[in-house]
Amino acid sequence: MKNAITGRLIIRAPRPTDLAAFLEYRNHPSIVEGGAIEPMGTEDARELLAKQADFDPTGAGGWFMRAIEHRQQCRMIGEVGVFLSPKTSHGDIGWIVHPDYHRMGIATEAVGAFVSSVFRELKLHRLTAACEQRNIASWRLMERIGMRREGIFRQSRQDAAGWQDEFLYALLQAEWLHNGLYS
After folding, report:
1. Number of Cα atoms under 13 Å in the Cβ half of residue 106
2. Quick check: 85 and 91 in contact, CB under 8 A?
3. Can you give the residue ranges of every domain in the chain?
4. Three-state helix/strand/coil letters over the chain
5. Range 4-178 has CATH code 3.40.50.2300
6. Which of 41, 54, 102, 133 is the S-S candidate for 165 at Cβ 3.0 to 4.6 Å?
């Protein structure tokens, strides 16, 4: 997949040189405490970055991740990816941005560019995403990029605070095109 370039970002394949920056945000206390991901060791991170650098998403299933690089800082500050269902044209997207870059529109910019690339290059028909109901920033981001809420998974995730509800969002390629969001 080609790099996507926005005003502030480059959405690109990860590189081995991203290791330190990747571990910094992936193991950041506020990211890990959210419960969506587990802390990652150096060897596992190195292996994941190498696998993702060479991953061909066409016709494959599994996790396909791109690095979010801040253009001015020439540094990986997060990731955006899609879990591709093999033999279907459906994907489930997700993202992580270093907490130092929260509340700046970085995630919206990155996810919007990635969604456009996924629809254009991978020819997916449908994208979905889910987040905890209390993760207001994530569900508002999904709405900003044109996704619609399709449902609520009641008490679908357990964390230290108890059982949490999740919102399910979706976007069809036809909706992306119709809403003029395709870039």
Report:
1. 24
2. yes
3. 4-178
4. CCCEECCCEEEECCCHHHHHHHHHHHCCHHHHHCCCCCCCCHHHHHHHHHHHHCCCCCCCCEEEEEEEEECCCCEEEEEEEEEECCCCCEEEEEEEECHHHCCCCHHHHHHHHHHHHHHHHCCCCEEEEEEECCCHHHHHHHHHCCCEEEEEEEEEEEECCEEEEEEEEEEEHHHHHHCCCCC
5. no
6. 133
